[in-house]
Automatic annotation (TrEMBL):
Catalytic function, reaction form: a 4-saturated-(3S)-3-hydroxyacyl-CoA = a (3E)-enoyl-CoA + H2O; a (3S)-3-hydroxyacyl-CoA = a (2E)-enoyl-CoA + H2O
Keywords attached to this entry: Fatty acid metabolism, Lipid metabolism, Lyase
Its EC number(s): 4.2.1.17
Domain of life: Bacteria
Presence of keyword Lyase: yes
UniProt keyword annotation of Lyase present: yes
Name recorded for this polypeptide: enoyl-CoA hydratase
GO biological process: fatty acid beta-oxidation
Taxon lineage: Bacteria, Pseudomonadati, Pseudomonadota, Alphaproteobacteria, Rhodobacterales
Protein source organism: Pikeienuella piscinae
GO MF assignments: enoyl-CoA hydratase activity
Matches recorded under Pfam families: ECH_1
Task of the protein: Could possibly oxidize fatty acids using specific components.
Length: 256
């Protein structure tokens, strides 16, 4: 059977490409299983400093696989805890960038939001169209979209099921930058190589600290940040980074 997630490694960056062109990269159980297995292995690899998650020019992913879900009963969904497996992807500790071209709908938009940030091609289209199917987002859309773009826009998207283009997505803060479609992978790779070039423990805790802002009070978050900041002084790379600055040379990070 064809692989539904293709992996390519370049130096310290690994790209995970969803590969179901016949279904606009709809996320079925095979994609989930392969994504989890491959991403978890890369996450555990100290030689990998950043992940890129992407799809095709036409679709990042057009959602969860509707045909796979269609016949399921409430009890099937309940006992399988359908979609819960994706939490494992969201929790990966290596920084991950979503490089989105074309459709990022339903579970596709939700998968992109599980990444640390989204770089969008000018062709990207985001949406949570589940309402048109008689359901609602099930992979985090109602929660992550609201936190990402605020109540007004999130309600608009979730209740009308409309799509937003890349420009609107950038205006409302869903994506960090827009690039020409043919430059998408180069730009994502450049950003990933920058991140992967830093000390991995510091990028891992940097993203943990930002994520903490969405889980806790400001006082607790500030306390957490300071504790983690102090913790980095136990690394080789903190000494190396600061010494290199003082000695006007490039740091030689060992990722420890
Ligand atoms: N699940 C299963 N198959 C899908 C799919 C999906 N989410 N999206 C597209 N496909 C399939 C189509 O059925 C079609 O297959 P066939 O050729 O075998 O008929 C193929 O991909 C190409 O799709 P279209 O012919 O529809 O392509 P288009 O260019 O005319 O339209 C589109 C593109 C507007 C994205 C349209 O495909 C569409 O609306 N897709 C569904 C989007 C959607 O509702 N996503 C939410 C899914 S539910 C969900 O994600 C729940 C959750 O919160 C996790």
């Amino acid at each position: 059977m064809a692989e539904t997630v293709l992996v390519e490694r370049k130096g310290r960056v690994a790209t995970l490409r969803i590969n179901r062109p016949e279904a606009l990269n709809a996320l079925n159980s095979a994609v989930l299983a392969e994504m989890l297995e491959k991403a978890a292995a890369l996450d555990a690899d100290r030689e990998i400093g950043c992940l890129i998650v992407t799809g095709s020019e036409k679709a990042f992913a057009a959602g969860a696989d509707i045909k796979e879900m269609n016949e399921k009963s409430n009890m099937d969904m309940f006992y399988d805890d359908f979609f819960a497996g994706w939490d494992g992807f969201a929790k990966l500790r290596t920084p991950k960038i979503a490089a989105v071209a074309g459709y990022a709908l339903g579970g596709g938009c939700e998968l992109a939001m599980m990444c640390d940030f989204i770089i969008a091609a000018d062709s990207a289209k985001f949406g949570q169209p589940e309402i048109k199917l008689g359901v609602i987002p099930g992979m985090g859309g109602s929660q992550r979209l609201a936190r990402s773009i605020g109540k007004a826009k999130a309600m608009d998207m979730v209740l009308t099921g409309r799509m937003m283009d890349a420009a609107e997505a950038e205006r409302c803060g869903l994506v960090s930058r827009i690039v020409a479609a043919d430059a998408l992978m180069d730009e994502a790779m450049k950003a990933a190589e920058i991140i992967a070039g830093y000390s991995k423990p510091s990028t891992m805790v940097a993203k943990e600290a930002v994520d903490r802002a969405f889980e806790t009070s400001l006082a607790e978050g500030l306390h957490y940040e300071r504790r983690v900041f102090f913790g980095l002084f136990a690394t080789h790379d903190q000494k190396e980074g600061m010494s290199a600055f003082a000695e006007k040379r490039k740091p030689d990070f060992r990722h420890e």
